[in-house]
Amino acid sequence: MPSAMIAGNWKMNTNLEQGKELASGIMDALEVPDNVETVICPPFISLAAISELLAGSKIKLGAQNVYPESSGAFTGETSPSMLSGICQYVILGHSERRQYFGETYEFVNKKVKAVLDAGMKPILCVGEDLEDKSRVGRKPSCRSKLLKDCREWIRRKHSSLRTNRSGLSAPVRRRHRR
After folding, report:
1. Which of 62, 115, 146, 170 has the smallest count of CB within 10 Å of its CB?
2. Residues 6 or more apart from 106 whose CB is under 8 A from it?
3. What CATH number belongs to 67-178?
4. Which whole number is the average pLDDT over 123-139?
């Protein structure tokens, strides 16, 4: 069982051909240790093609977002069932989603539950910027709120948590400074 995870979020970069080329390059160049879960999260447009490329590889595939409903009139959104045969992971609660799209703790909570119900693992991004952390009389942190709201789900199912201000664990931060 992996004891660590490395996930690469490609954000809104690469078209389909560039994504396939990058995924192939990562597969060729990266030696994945057995104790490290390695996940790549390309844009939605590349998920199906890269899923085929990764077949038989140690590298796992993650989506960058999901909508918590299984179907309906949600133009441009992607449901958990659309991803479940392709991806093993889904990034949720990213600060960019909260900042630019107004995603709330409650909405991220719905997404976490939907991803777990679909048999995938959430990569739950939690944290606050320094301004939020230093504000006197601030509301409960998003981490404590999300963890409280999702407690029963996190106990029952595996979830990857990103829990500090830089998004890096302490050992990785130390290595990054060198």
Report:
1. 170
2. 149
3. 3.20.20.70
4. 69
